[in-house]
């Protein structure tokens, strides 16, 4: 039977096996959205008419004995910075409501639908993706299903809310500095931020061209792999997309971890954050049979470089809107962008050069290890509206610091699976980053799968 | 190390004028906070010596 707990691969298997129809699977998803969304605020648009037509067409193909894709009938939704035909691409903003409706779907939406998945809507997010909280002054916060008084994490907050509440088994997000991994950690989900350039960004509203990544969020590693495989491949429309052939991982997912050199990140990643965050990393390391430690050199400066690149390039993208419609921004976002607009060009150039140096140092590190474990967030979900938090006795702003462990990793485009720690015993979720060398998504996914099989990592809809 | 004489408010006013962008009085404190925080964070990168041979990683394909 299919219900809100069902994983994407279970739904696809039931539909492909003729046990249920795509129309029925869609009905389950839409009913859950109708029941849960008013309280949790994940969706900004539900495309039920389009979805019903797609489901009916898929059911007809199955009736006619035609081959259907590996994600046949899987309902999914996308952060509202993805183009969806007929909808303005909001990117969490009020301003973009005035944009003309998208005339085509984003490349990744097209690829998921080509694999049989069915789009059911667009999801809430932090304005223009400059956010780690999932709060939004225009559309209200996307709430954490584990405790609706808490943040979902951002900026792919609606994606976290929708998957963790079982409205959909699969959502797409974007991650410039942690916006897939932070809500995955706070909502207890598996999230994949692939290598920079792996997945096409065509048809998505940008934030920082040098750092933007797109990827899936799910409640199982198999679902990450299936959706990732469906989305891979070059795209001549995206200048930044690596012209690499698809490297499917799904069939290799259960290959185990024999021979993999796994280590825990120390120094920057071990010296800050709440104790339970490090307990999660230790539990993962123990289950993987490693007590090895590595130091990612100058990770704090790597984060600083990403911070400078983000604030300057993000501000540049929005310069005209900051001049002509400043009152239509979320004030917190506007004031960060305005400051970014004022920074000297020398700082940006130096940040880019530092990032190149840092990349080379970390590449050296990956000669000796295959996988690095690190916390995903410094704490569990803060309360909605919480502005400051205290970490290791130091008070700091929530909005800028929930990503302090994710930012040094995306700064150099490494692939990461964020995996939720299973042993929470009623407490709010917390995730761990499983980090691999560039283009080695397969290794991070295999490790995540091993942890899922061992029961150390697990995700459940609530 | 020389004394830090950075005047954030004067810098903000001069830069905003150069860029022809208005900063409303009630936004100013928050913009200044962000400017000061960004400058603090940027020091971590600016204070780190790099060899002349290190180039930005951005690749432009004509």
Write the layout of secondary structure elements.
The complex is a heterodimer of chains A (462) and B (62).
Chain A: H1 8-16, H2 22-40, E1 43-46, H3 48-63, E2 75-79, H4 107-114, E3 118-123, E4 143-144, E5 147-151, H5 157-164, E6 170-175, H6 181-187, E7 190-193, E8 213-218, H7 221-231, E9 262-265, H8 275-287, E10 293-294, H9 299-317, H10 319-324, H11 331-341, H12 345-365, E11 371-375, E12 388-391, E13 394-397, H13 398-401, H14 407-410, E14 416-420, E15 431-436, H15 441-453
Parallel strand pairs in A: 2-3, 2-6, 9-10, 9-11
Antiparallel strand pairs in A: 1-3, 4-5, 6-8, 7-8, 7-14, 11-15, 12-13, 14-15
Chain B: H1 8-19, H2 28-46
How does this model look, in words?
The complex is a heterodimer of chains A (462) and B (62). Chain A has 462 residues and is of the alpha/beta class. Chain A has a single domain (8-453), classed as Alpha-Beta Complex (Amidase signature (AS) enzymes). Chain A is 37% helix and 15% strand. Chain A has helices at residues 8-16, 22-40, 48-63, 107-114, 157-164, 181-187, 221-231, 275-287, 299-317, 319-324, 331-341, 345-365, 398-401, 407-410, 441-453; strands at 43-46, 75-79, 118-123, 143-144, 147-151, 170-175, 190-193, 213-218, 262-265, 293-294, 371-375, 388-391, 394-397, 416-420, 431-436. Chain A has an eleven-stranded mixed sheet, sandwiched between helices. Chain A has a two-stranded antiparallel sheet with strand order 4-5. In chain A, helix 8 (275-287) links the parallel strand 9 and strand 10 (293-294). In chain A, helix 2 (22-40) runs antiparallel to helix 3 and helix 9 packs across helix 11 (331-341). The longest helix of chain A is centred in the last third of the chain and has 21 residues, at 345-365. The model of chain A has no long low-confidence stretch (mean pLDDT 97). Chain B has 62 residues and is mostly helical. Chain B has a domain at 8-40. The mean pLDDT of chain B is 92. Chain B has two helices and no strands. The termini of chain B are far apart. Classes of the chains: A alpha/beta (462), B mainly alpha (62). Chains A and B meet through helix 9, helix 10, helix 11 and helix 12 of A and helix 1 and helix 2 of B.
């Amino acid at each position: 039977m299919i219900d809100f707990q069902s994983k994407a691969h279970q739904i696809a298997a039931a539909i492909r096996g003729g046990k249920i129809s795509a129309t029925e699977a869609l009905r389950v998803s839409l009913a859950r959205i109708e029941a849960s969304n008013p309280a949790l605020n994940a969706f900004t648009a539900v495309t039920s008419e389009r979805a019903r037509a797609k489901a009916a067409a898929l059911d007809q193909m199955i009736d006619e004995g035609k081959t259907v894709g590996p994600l046949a009938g899987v309902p999914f939704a996308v952060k509202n910075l993805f183009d969806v035909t007929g909808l303005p691409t909001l990117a969490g903003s009020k301003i973009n409501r005035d944009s003309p409706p998208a005339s085509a779907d984003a490349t990744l939406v097209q690829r998921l639908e080509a694999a049989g998945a069915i789009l059911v809507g667009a999801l809430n997010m932090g304005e223009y993706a400059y956010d780690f909280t999932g709060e939004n002054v225009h559309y209200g916060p996307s709430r954490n299903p584990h405790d609706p008084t808490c943040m979902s994490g951002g900026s792919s907050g609606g994606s976290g809310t929708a998957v963790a509440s079982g409205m959909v088994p699969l959502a797409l997000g974007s991650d410039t500095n942690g916006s897939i991994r932070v809500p995955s950690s706070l909502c207890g989900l598996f999230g994949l931020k692939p290598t920079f350039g792996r997945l096409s960004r065509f048809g998505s509203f940008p934030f920082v061209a040098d750092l933007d990544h797109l990827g899936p969020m799910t409640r199982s590693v198999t679902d990450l792999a299936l959706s990732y495989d469906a989305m891979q491949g070059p795209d001549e429309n995206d200048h930044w997309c690596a012209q690499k052939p698809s490297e499917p991982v799904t069939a290799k997912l259960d290959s185990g971890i024999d021979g993999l050199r796994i280590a825990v990140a120390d120094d920057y990643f071990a010296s800050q954050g709440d104790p339970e965050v490090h307990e999660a990393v230790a539990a993962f390391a123990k289950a993987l049979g490693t007590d090895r430690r590595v130091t990612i050199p100058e990770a704090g400066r790597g984060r600083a470089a990403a911070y400078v690149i983000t604030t300057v390039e993000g501000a540049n993208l929005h310069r005209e809107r900051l001049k002509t419609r400043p009152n239509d921004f979320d004030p917190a976002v506007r004031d960060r962008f305005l400051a970014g607009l004022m920074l000297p060009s020398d700082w940006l150039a130096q940040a880019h050069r530092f990032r190149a140096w840092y990349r080379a140092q970390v590449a050296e590190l990956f000669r000796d290890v295959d996988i690095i474990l690190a916390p995903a967030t410094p704490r569990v979900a803060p309360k909605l509206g919480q502005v400051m938090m205290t970490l290791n006795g130091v008070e700091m702003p929530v909005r800028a610091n929930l990503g302090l462990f994710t930012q040094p990793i995306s700064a150099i485009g490494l692939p990461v699976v964020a995996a939720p720690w299973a042993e929470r015993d009623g407490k709010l979720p917390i995730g761990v980053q499983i980090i691999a060398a560039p283009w080695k998504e397969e290794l991070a996914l295999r490790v995540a799968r091993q942890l899922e099989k061992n029961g150390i990592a697990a995700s459940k809809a609530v | 190390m020389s004394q830090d004489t950075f005047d954030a408010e004067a810098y903000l006013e001069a830069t905003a004028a150069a860029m022809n962008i208005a900063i409303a009085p009630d936004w100013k404190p928050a913009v200044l906070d962000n400017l000061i925080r960004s400058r603090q964070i940027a020091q971590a990168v600016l204070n780190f010596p790099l060899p002349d041979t290190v180039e930005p990683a951005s690749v432009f394909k004509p």
